[in-house]
């Protein structure tokens, strides 16, 4: 679909680099799907039959979970909507594409004890992991995405604030520093270590294993109609997004009002913010005792 590539080129200046990569990946899946099914993809062909065949291709041939397949369908719908706005098609069948049933991976975040373990773990003999640890702790204590914490420069520190214009939304954030974030930034007067998201996500799992973050976490997802359930050590689920989730969840646990958290994270509504939250079992017990004795 030429219009898919056109959409990518047209929006490249306004979308984050990671988002553009996702759209290119979906285009590659569509190209492979068309070749495998010997089918020319036209605007008119994006119908119910396409939906069912593409879902089968994604979940069976590519072994995607339903959640990942939903992301591919979402991008197809966005591009079809773009084509309609450009007057290229009046086919609206894509609006009837249903979201596949899926259960998101349990929200992985670091507890207070786990965060303190990372902060104080002696990584003198592992300088590479020490740098990854510092980046993760900075994310956990500021709520920044990888695209933002990975590019922090010394000149963004204004007094006791870190001033960031986010890559994804282009919003300005004024982050008040705390003892954790302040200490890390002071360790890198020439700027933070540069690390791609792919390498960070690989190294942070290694870091978690090295530091003993192995609490079992249940992961439940669907592939087509098949329910897949497994238990994994927490370190296998760590990623650049763990920091943002940790910041939101721990800030709530520590008593920070949601409206204030949103000032730090840049969320526009409470519903989106709360998707990040995972209430710890210890906090549940604490709140039950506080409410009921």
Automatic annotation (TrEMBL):
Biological processes annotated in GO: DNA integration; DNA recombination
Q: What is this protein called?
A: Site-specific integrase
| UniProt keyword annotation of DNA-binding present | yes
Cross-referenced PROSITE patterns: TYR_RECOMBINASE
Q: Which family does it belong to?
A: Belongs to the 'phage' integrase family.
Question: Superkingdom, according to UniProt?
Answer: Bacteria
UniProt keyword Amino-acid biosynthesis present: no
Show the GO MF annotations.
DNA binding
Q: Which UniProt keywords apply?
A: DNA recombination, DNA-binding
Do you know which PANTHER family this protein is assigned to?
PHAGE INTEGRASE-RELATED, PROPHAGE INTEGRASE INTD-RELATED
